[in-house]
Amino acid sequence: MNKFPRSAYVHIPFCHRRCFYCDFAVIPLGNKVETLQGYGSKTVKEYLHFLYKEILSIKHKTSLSTIYVGGGTPSILDPQQIKQLIDLFKENYGVDYGAEITMEVDPASFNLDDLHGFINAGINRFSLGVQSFNNKILQKSGRRHLREDAEKSCSWLKKVYSSGLIKSWSLDLIQNLPLSGFREWKEDLKKAITFSPPHISIYDLNIENGTVFKKLANLGKLQLPSDEIAFRNSETTHLILKKSGYSRYEISNYCLPRHQSRHNRVYWSGLGWWSFGQGSTSSPWGQKLTRPRVSKEYKEWVIRQDKLSLDSSLNNINYVYQELDEKIMLGLRLKEGIDIYKFFEEQNWENKKSERNIIRLLSKWERFLESGLLVRKGNRFFLSDPKGMELSNQILISMFEWWDEIN
Ligand code: SF4
Predict the structure, then answer these.
(1) Atom 3 of ligand 1 has which residue's CA nearest to it?
(2) Which residues' Cβ are closer than 6 Å to ligand 1?
(3) What is the pTM of this model?
(4) Which helix (H) or strand (E) holds 9?
């Protein structure tokens, strides 16, 4: 790969508080945060100072076709700060005409004026973290917003989208949160559709180490929907969204025609991207570099990179190469799947080794092809929808087993 990345991810680590399922690199600032002046503003300004330094440290800056401002809760920032960030890219990298510029927003962390401010700053796509419209579920998950906040944010986004002020927006939900039984989940989906979001992400709840949910689970106090309910919930998701015109283009993502997230496709397709900010991971050439998750260490890291006055993402020795198993895993998430032979060619293994490894992988996949979880068309393999996508873990586990065996 010799082309420079055309996509950039920016991590804004601030949140009001930490949700019970979240293990991201976030800094909870409390409810009173005011990022321009007053409570929490010093922390925010200091972080932005180092973030900008890192953004400018890339030597070969080339024009970008997607920018994604994620977090954390980027909508904690003031529109002026978002403008400053987008302008930094415009002035130093260049941003293509028609580029997709996305920002994650959380209900109750912005108002209508802020939304217009973000749009004026250059944001043309939003991803709204609703997670659920049910107050009991929201509270049980440690979310700060309520149903009313989510509804308000959805109607604002619907309005700015219908007026042509933004290109698209996504409504994000989490499936199988505590208290989310079949009836509750169906209500959440139906409510989501009333706002006609052009894109919907449905994430499955994962219980991560270090989270409140993990602690509750260890104490036997976390009650989640049973496997049977979880399976029915997935089936309902598929049926309701399909009936409403959404197509599933990735395991967790559904959209109306022409509303796929261009930025996220870069990750799944193995193209390179820059990444900036505490805890974020860049992969300009298929090699991954993760920044420290702790503020103090991140700042020291930025200073070290700056002193090298080299292109940090090109010269750092702490790279981890993206391995073939990871490329296959990401590629299989997409509706179009992967050309397995092309992936093997890129490994530069000698012929016999390559052949041997393909045969071993295909023999592991035989039972999934027979049961219809996996589909083969020529050299291309993809998950069937909904069965293969729902049970993708089985296939991925077999693939990781194969990877361990051949290494
Ligand atoms: S708002 Fe998002 S990033 Fe922040 S703690 Fe909650 S889940 Fe994590």
Answers:
(1) 72
(2) 15, 18-19, 22, 24, 26, 71-73, 106, 129
(3) 0.90
(4) strand 7-12
